[in-house]
Structure formats: structure tokens, C-alpha cells
Design goal:
The structure is a single chain. By secondary structure, this protein is α/β, with parallel strands linked by helices. It contains 11 helices and 14 strands. The chain has helices at residues 2-32, 58-73, 127-135, 179-191, 247-256, 267-272, 276-279, 300-303, 342-348, 352-363, 365-393, and strands at residues 43-50, 81-85, 120-121, 154-161, 164-165, 168-171, 175-178, 197-203, 219-223, 233-237, 242-246, 284-286, 308-314, 324-329. The strands form 4 sheets. Strands 3-2-1-4-8-9-12 form a 7-stranded mixed sheet. Strands 5-6-7 form a 3-stranded antiparallel sheet. Helix 1 (2-32) runs antiparallel to helix 11, helix 2 runs parallel beside helix 5 (247-256) and helix 9 runs antiparallel to helix 10 (352-363). It is elongated, with a radius of gyration of 26 Å.
Length: 394
Amino acid sequence: MRWVSRRCLFLLTWLAAWTLAISQDDRVSNFFERHVGTSGHTNNWAVLVCASRYWFNYRHMANALGMYRTVKRLGIPDSNIILMLADDVACNPRNKFPGSVYAKAGRHLDLYGENIEVDYRGYEVTVENFIRLLTGRVDPSVPRSKRLLTDDRSNIFVYMTGHGGNEFLKFQDNEEISAFDIADAFEQMWQKKRYNEIFFMIDTCQANTMYSQFYSPNILATGSSEIEENSYSHENDNDIGVSVIDSYTHFVLELMEGINKTSQVSMQDLFSSYDPVKIRSHPGVRSDLFQRPLESALVTDFFGGVSQAEIFPVVEDADATVQNITRVSSSGHAAHLDPVGPQAYLDQGVDTTNAIVLTSERDNITLDVRWKDVRKWTSIFIVAFLAGWVSLAR
């Protein structure tokens, strides 16, 4: 009987070690997932579009550059920001302050500075390039810095500013993009699994009509003015000689200055801050396509960077190219090692052989998690049974 007891104690020790190893795996997973919110996203991107050009549209470029500075300050790296800008203001002969763009009359903050990366400039800012950027249908010669390399875990902030009207926005006084064009582009993105959630913001006359045709899920939209309503500038600078920022964008950026990377300010707080009297127009919000309550959606879910890791099981097959698949998305590195499918690899110029391996491994994650649960509870049951058996044997 003593021999049996010793064997049982040995089994108890072995099972305890096995259970401890499983709990250690859980602790590691919980560590990497501790920042995961209800949004379910692992990376943030920003597409900032100034659709105007010429000196007298100075304020529109200041609008886009103000948003650019904000998303960078809150953690989105330049690699995840696509800036479309005519870029004809900073070095314009009329600019009394060469190489600088200001959004306030006091000129305390230079929005242009030395640390700015314009991805599409001048005549590259076209409707075609914007649609191709969103849908991923770019020419193979387009560099990665000009591509929106998003996936189904990406939250995207799309900001547009310029001159517009009822369901259209002008691009450099040469062409127009309609609300239908943007709606269809977002639908293509959803079908191709190029986003998790989109926050669309636009500052132009009759801005709220630009999101009236949206029909794809997980889109939150806001605009500066109602139909048949203008969107006004905020203030002039006598030395510069033109308006330096639009009123709606000014007050949004003013709120953003009080937000940092860990702020818990919600999208509802942002929308509640709208004051039609100060803005001199009636901003609108459309949330019927958005799946989450606005109170639980944080501003930093779209304006801030994230640092997440997703743990995948080890691949045992010696012929597999990837032995341990870990997808990491951080504020400083945009790594997308498991796109939705082989087509996503083709868009990024990557060999599709590895894409098939990655996709198949992704499908096995759920089974692996369930197997861990079975092992855990089986161990607990056996330990309890043997403990009872030993106590009765004594």
C-alpha cells in the first residue's frame, strides 16, 4: 500500500507541474492581451486629405496638418499615416514665414516644421489616387509608404477637408468626389477585410451630406455642417493675410490638446463638446452603422497608437516556413504577418506560399484554445481523484 501511495504522490507532482505550465501560458497570454479593448483592433491608421490647393486655401492645409500633428502626438507612427496635401503653402512666395504653417494668429506652433512626411503632394492628390489608396488597388510600382497596408484588425481614421457641397467634395478645383464614391470605396474595404472600424470626419460646407450614403458596417461618421449650411473659418492672421484654420477643426483640435495616450475620453465626449454657437454651424454624427456604444468607444481607439501582440501556436511541421507565428503591431512598427488571405500578400508584394501556411494556422487557433481548456480541467479532476484515493488508502 505504501508503494501505491508513493506512485500516487509522484503522479500528483507531475500533474501539478503540468497544470502550472498551462497556467503560465495563460498568464503570458493575459499579459500580451491586457490592453485589448472592446474594439478588437491591433493597429491604427490615419488617412488625412486636404483636397484644396492655392494660397487662399491656407486654412485647409492647416486643418490637415493640425490633425497630422495630433495623431502623431497620440502615438500613430508616420508609417501608419497617409497624408495627402497640395503642399503649396509653406514655400509659397506670399508666405511671410517661409517653411512654416500656423493655425493660430499668435503663431506659437509651427505645424509644418522639420518632422513631416507628405505621402501624396501637389497633383498626386486626386480622386483616383484616393480611391485606389483606400481599396488597395495601387500600381505595383507604388512604394509601401504610399499604401494603406491595413487588415481586418485595423482601425482607420479618415479626415477630409476642402471645398464641398451637397454630397460632393472638390479636389483642387479640378474634379469632385461624391458621397457615393466614398461609400462604395468603404464597402470594397469591408468586403476585402481591410478594416475593423472606420471613423470618418470631414470639414467642408454641407459636410454632413458626405456620409449620408454610407452602408457598410462598423463606420462612425461626423461632419462640420448640415445640408445648405456653410462651414466657416475661425480666425485670420493679418501678417499671413488669410484665414489660418476652420472653426470646426479648431475646436476639435482644442479638445484633442487635453488628451494623451492613456486618456479615457470617449467618442460621445467628443461629440458632446460640439457647440454650434462657437462653431457657427451644426456638426452632425452618424452612428447607426457603428456596432459599439459611443460611451465605450475611446477617442484613442482612432487617434492613438496601440501596442498589441497576438500569440499563435508553434508550427510543428518542419517544412513550414514559419515556426512560431506571432503578429505584433506597435506604435513604432507596423508588422502584418497574417493578412486575411493570399490576396493581401499579393497587394504587398509578398510570396503567397507563406500566406497559405499563415492562414491555415490561424484557423487552428480556436481548436488549440479548446484543447488547453480540456487539459486544464482534466488535470484538476485527476488531481482531486488521486488526492481522495491517497487519503482513503491511508
